[in-house]
Amino acid sequence: MKLIDIYNDYKSKYPDVVIFIKSGKFYLTFDNDALISGLICGYKRVNNKLGFPEQSLDKVINLFKEKNINIIIDDKQYFNSCNDYYLWLKRANDDLMVGNMANTLLQVIKEKITSDFNNYEKIRNFLNEL
What we know:
Strand content: 15-25%
CATH class of the domain at 3-86: Alpha Beta
Order of helices and strands: HEEHEHEEHH
Largest sheet: 5 strands, mixed
CATH topology of the domain at 3-86: MutS, DNA mismatch repair protein, domain I
Number of helices: 5
Radius of gyration: 19 Å
Number of strands: 5
Helix content: 55-70%
């Protein structure tokens, strides 16, 4: 059985829990759980999945406990009486959206400055006035 299939099986039973599956010396998660995990842990998502090394397990568990997000790691459940999964999912989606908007603006700014270096001062002054 593929890791994604194991993940999806858990996810169908626990839609509001972050699921981590062990693969070699790493723990992996996917989709929305990867989005939340990236925001909470600061790890980078690649192709809608996120992994961290096994030596970071205690740190990751503690971060999720602090944020009141229920997690399952290889059949072991870490459940709080309060589960803020959907709150953190919204925050993670908002963070992704803001990042995408900022990247779009940066590209436009780069093009404007490249076409005319005088635009730098105009843009800087405009941003300082906001």
